[in-house]
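Dock iron/sulfur cluster; give full complex structure.
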Amino acid sequence: MIDERALCERFPVEWADLMWGLDNGSSASAGDRKVLVSAGIRICEKCPVRAECLADAIVRREQVGIRGGLPLRARRRLRCMASDGGVDMSDGGTKALHGLTRWLKSHQELIEAARDAETADRQAKRRRQRRKERAGMERCVREGFRPTKPPLDRQGELDI
Ligand code: SF4
């Protein structure tokens, strides 16, 4: 989004790409990227054109980066919330953009709600993944790291 009031426009491009998540091939470590993206999100929260920026990304279905402090999944969630709230985005153009911007300005708390819900989903997914890994490790330990036999009805499939 090009707007002279946009806070991200004040950063050198290589920094902005890291902070708002557009950089895929940088040599920055995962830890550094995480810190920079978090800083980018905080800056978005103070940006005077946050609602316009978010509306633009949502209406255009922008697939990458952080916009208005929200990653893609949270933007999708916010789009659904806006749609449920009666915002008509069917034209995908100026009317949708203006309607959604107005709605976002009067429902700022839902921007944070969409992000919090997305964060909670992500954390729950990580917890499930960790539980699965732990269960796998425990099974390996129980079985003495021996490869398990395939079930009887599938043993023939492996005899190639
Ligand atoms: S909300 Fe964030 S990404 Fe959007 S214009 Fe402002 S600083 Fe840039």
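Observed: Residues 1, 6-8, 20, 43-44, 47, 49-50, 53, 67-68 surround iron/sulfur cluster (CB under 6 Å).
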